[in-house]
Amino acid sequence: MKKRVVVVKKSDGSGGRGNRSGSGSVVRYAECQKNHAAKLGGFAVDGCREFMARGEEGTEEALSCAACGCHRNFHRRDVDAEVVFEYSPPNSDHH
């Protein structure tokens, strides 16, 4: 007999814009983590708390944040994922 196991990973709910990526997962981009003082040997972020796409999904502008101007890769990525897999437990009839 096959059993179905569903594992759901939830993000911390900090917000961010969401995109569907693959089956059963939602990707959100939260606060910007770009270090603007790296050239000076320091650490300073701009305080942008949420990625807001500058353009429509599928366009080049969708990868740029309207709030801070940074590329989406500088924003913390949160994934809500549902992982589904099936397995057959060992047969307990054989000793």
From TrEMBL:
GO terms assigned for molecular function: DNA-binding transcription factor activity; transcription cis-regulatory region binding; zinc ion binding
Domain of life where this protein originates: Eukaryota
Domain ZF-HD dimerization-type per the UniProt entry, residue ranges: 29-78
Keyword terms: Metal-binding, Zinc, Zinc-finger
One cellular component (GO) term of this entry: nucleus
Region described as Disordered: 1-25
Protein name (Swiss-Prot/TrEMBL): Mini zinc finger protein 3-like
